[in-house]
Amino acid sequence: MSLFKHLGPLLIAGTVLCACSEQLPSDPVSNQSQSPVLVMVNGEAITENDVEFAIQKTFSEAELMLADEGLRKKVLESLVASRAMRHAASLELTLDERERIAQRVASYEEELYVREYLRMHTTPQPVTTAMVEAYYNKHPEYFGADDVLELSVLTMSADADEANKQWFLQHVGKLKKVDDWAEQAAQWQSKQLTFSRQRVEQSKLPPKLKASVPALAIGSVSSVVVDNGQMQVVKVTERQSIPPKPLAEVSAEIRKRLAPVNVKRAVKTASEKAVETAVIEWITPR
């Protein structure tokens, strides 16, 4: 495939380069003035450095190995076209539109400086074995640890008669004291109260039950849980713990999770250092 397929995006890149170069005319590290001028467009120079930068930014090393003699000429032509379009647009845009573009250029320029500052001043600490173990021990639920609960459940449907709902609320204290709900279930059917046994992982409990059931000891009964008109009381009859996956299996995953945390810490330290050395005057109250 022809390398010239990149020249559409390159036109845009050239426009950005033109805009950025205009924002930093006195940049002390710039050697634009020492680079040979290849063409003038409306009084603005396009230099050899401009062409070289555009080529390196647009094409990979593998693509450049296949480039022919016409590549540099095509790149230069695309930069001429983008410079001409930038000039033409600047004559047509309103002052507000030009200011918005200037703000975007300034924002991007600041972003580049921040990247360079962080590159020079941040050294994220490596993720240690101790950090991995601490994270693993603190969050076993992230790695498969769970409790499997055997539950006895009394449910008053949301569609039940209002009289039966009131009966349930009035008698729930007595119902909790019944040892064998299954044995008594037939007597409650006329009250639209149903009994069921459920085996469920604690992490998969409905949100309303998850708020109260995990803390229950075996044999304990929850308070009445109301969810969209449905009322339930739950008794925990058995609890089986599932251990997390072995640390050796998940240590690589933990390191991936912790690495960005260390980067954030390093960035925070660097930003605080920059603020401490800056002269800051708050015009409005913080």
From TrEMBL:
The answer, when asked if Isomerase is one of the entry's keywords, is yes
Which residue numbers delimit the PpiC domain?
A: 127-251
Single Gene Ontology MF annotation = isomerase activity
Q: Which domain of life is it from?
A: Bacteria
Keywords from UniProt, A to Z, are: Isomerase
User: Which ranges form a coiled coil?
Assistant: none
Entry keyword RNA-binding: no
The name under which this protein is listed is Peptidyl-prolyl cis-trans isomerase
